[in-house]
Amino acid sequence: MERKRIDTDVLIIGGGTAGCFAAMVLGKSPDVRVTIAEKAGIRRSGCLAAGVNAINAYITKGHVPQDYVDYARHDADGIVRGDLLLSMSERLNHVTKVMENLGLVILKDENGEYVSRGWRNIKINGENIKPLLADAASAQKNVTILNHVNITDYLTVPADAAPENHADGEFIPSGRRIAGAVGFSVNEPLAYEIHAKAVLVATGGAAGIYRPNNPGFSRHKMWYPPFNTGAGYAMGIRAGAEMTTFEMRFIALRCKDTIAPTGTIAQGVGAKQVNSLGEIYENKYGLTTSERVYGTVEEMREGRGPCYLKTKGISKDAEESLYRAYLNMAPSQTLKWFEGGQGPSEENVEIQGTEPYIVGGHTASGYWIRNDRSTTIEGLFAAGDVAGGAPQKYVTGALAEGEIAAESILKLLAKDAKGSVQKHLMNAAGTNDVALTKEADGLIDAYEAQLSNPEFLMTTEEIEEAMQKIMDEYAGGISTAYRYNEASLELADKHIRSLEALVPRLAAAAFAENTDFPEKDPHFQAYVNSVYRDGQIETVLRPLIAENGAEACGNEGRVPG
Amino acid sequence: MSVKINRSKCVGCRQCVEVCPGNLIKIGSDRKAYIPHERDCWGCTSCIKECRFGAIDFFLGPDLEGRGTKLSVSRNENGYVWTFTDIHGHVRQISINAKDANRY
Predict the structure, then answer these.
(1) Distance between CA A254 and CA A228 in Å, rounded?
(2) What are the start-end ranges of the E strands in A427-488?
(3) Are A408 and A199 in contact (CB under 8 A)?
(4) Contact A532, A45 (CB under 8 A)
(5) Measured between alpha carbons, how far is A132 from A483 in angstroms, rounded to an integer?
(6) A147: chain B residues, CB-CB within 8 Å
(7) Beta pairing class for A273-274 and A526-533
(8) For residues A10 and A30, what is the distance between their CA atoms, to the nearest angstrom?
(9) Is the model's pLDDT at A365 over the cut of 70?
(10) Can the peptide bond before residue A306 be classed as cis, meaning omega within 30 degrees of 0?
């Protein structure tokens, strides 16, 4: 395996929504060398590959950013970071404008105002949203793009003890400073050792932990990208970063089989959730994201399934619009309607819950970060699906976080240029150059060992399926209606020790997934954080943090109109 | 859920290899694209939208009620034309202007 060393100022791991936007922002500082390492090709990689047809995080007229914070807090049953949500919400409209300037088509009324779908959604043609972002990132002269390079590990050095790096409220530095990362080309036998002054981790969340909805041929027909494997979480855990809220899984309500989004039907044509008896059941359980899934699961458990979105009777015009809307984000659904011979105007759309995903863009799982998006590893920043504490990001929230992280990185590098506190750090990194290369060599040796192991009996695919079976059966997958208890989790733990940090723990859940504790426990109005130290996962409960960064008490969420 | 690459139309330009978010498409020794593991496909249709030679079709697996209809896409000056061709050869087309936003 050939080895290549790259030196850069800023390494962005993952050229998806947040990563590309951050690169574009860093492009305004031409002296800063930026490298994006993307395991596929940035033009269509990540969550936006198929496109989107709405901006679901937008502050429409008559609303303020605080309304969005309140909505996200309510939806996550209070387990959110008020400070992160507010700084994100304040930028939602600004990043939308940037996307429009890049060429994103947004529906406007006769007065030139955006047409809203709900109080926080606007309608777009987002089929090309990823190519627009990728082009904007590629156009920056100081940005180098390494497509088809998969990063697997961080390179770190001991952090110095400058005063500003001491514990800061609930943020306890890990004692390590980022110095780069190691990865490999997916197309040729080439390994990369990348040295960087600052790193932004902007990889995806994790699909494929649980047995998916569709087995066999269509196993990858899921809502969340099956290629988002949680590598960014794994790298952080292994490097000793503090992580948060992994117990909060995201289970989406989706069109059965195609696992296509349901919001376009529910919000677009106002379709209600009905059971097999034709009864509208959604009001019985509530309308938050998790309550919509919970209601569907309960109706099925009680023998009133299958469940549907009641579309029968919508106009042919509305039906045609749905065909088009889905072609712009989930073409398989339009194809399924055609294959079945009956469109949504003639037949209700069957719905189901997905397998659980771990994704900080929808729930709050990920790196434990400060409001500037810095992690507990010095010089490492996180944005998008790997950044914890700020759920309901959707596309614009990820863009906003990419921008905040990029600005924070520029501040860090500016300090460095002035030779203040950061100079010490860079010296530390410099003196460790030999040690770093040695560390990188060790990691690359491990790739080679893996590639040349002739005795390997099992494939990674077999191991993946075994893991999914364990998680499904013991850790609250689809087959147990998302329920687990202490005994089943212990079995899961026993079977998957290496994935210990990702196993859902006893914690506050929006509904009773934990059958040992079906009632809400106010004790868990807190963040369940974890740190990997000396081969063990330590779990820490941290108090809720309000919008101003201070400790909050309990859930004060309200739902805006 | 997967794609079929029509080797007679493929010119080996590698664009599908470049854009597949799962790195699933490879170039064979005949310099044509192929997908070694069809069941790994997510169904995002990036490759069929990016292929300038109309060499890639999309279909639903039988486990998703796929009944043999092929979906292809071509580009014109206004946007995309999606073409559905069922097993009897019946064709249905939907044109989407890139300047038109979703109504829902």
Answers:
(1) 19
(2) none
(3) no
(4) no
(5) 41
(6) 18
(7) unpaired
(8) 12
(9) yes
(10) yes
Nearest to A8 by CA among A137, A178, A148, A153: A178
Question: Which stretch of A129-133, A221-225, A263-267, B19-23 has the lowest confidence by average pLDDT?
Answer: A263-267
CA B76 to chain centre: 16
pLDDT tens-place string over residues A298-342? 999 999 999 999 999 999 999 999 999 999 889 999 999 999 889
Find the helix or strand (DSSP H, E) in which A475 lies: none
pLDDT class of A93 with cuts at 50, 70, 90? very high
B84 to A338: CB separation less than 8 angstroms, yes or no? yes
Nearest to A325 among B40, B99, B104 (CB): B104
* Token pair listed for A38: 């993307």
Q: Give me A267's structure tokens.
A: 């919000």
Residue A151, beta-bridge partner list: A183
pLDDT tens, position by position, A194-238: 999 999 999 999 999 999 999 889 999 999 999 999 999 999 999
- Cα separation, B2 vs A314, in Å, equals 30
> Is the CB of B94 less than 8 angstroms away from the CB of A327?
yes
Smallest Cα distance from B104 to chain A, Å: 4
- Whether residue B63 and residue A216 make contact (CB cut-off 8 A), yes or no, is yes
Give A 115-154 residues with CB within 8 A of chain B: 115, 117, 123-128, 147-148
Q: How far apart are CA B91 and CA B88, in angstroms?
A: 9
Taking phi over 0 as left and psi of -120 to 50 as alpha, with beta for the rest, A169 belongs to left
Q: Would you tell me how many other CB atoms lie within 10 Å of the CB of residue B31?
A: 11
Q: Give residues with Cβ within 8 angstroms of A242, minimum separation 6.
A: A171, A172, A174, A367, A368, A375, A376, A529, A530, A531, A540
For the stretch A279-295, pLDDT in tens is 999 999 988 888 999 99
Residue in A74, A69, A60 with CA at minimum distance from that of residue A548: A69
- Tokens, residue A396: 């614009």
Q: Report helix, strand or coil for A297.
A: helix
- The span from the first CA to the last CA of chain B, in angstroms, equals 25
Tokens 């936007």 belong to residue: A21
Q: Contact A72/A549 with Cβ under 8 angstroms?
A: no
In chain A, positions 51-110, which contact chain B (CB-CB < 8 Å)? 53-54, 105-107
Instruction: Tokens 């719905």: give the residue.
Output: A351
Q: Mind listing the pLDDT tens digit for each residue in A498-547? A: 554 433 332 333 345 666 666 777 777 889 999 998 888 899 999 999 99
* Average pLDDT taken over every residue of chain A: 89
Q: Are A378 and A159 in contact (CB under 8 A)?
A: yes
Provide the ipTM: 0.95
* B104 chain-A contacts, CB cut-off 8 A: 53, 117, 123, 264-265, 267-269, 318, 321-322, 325
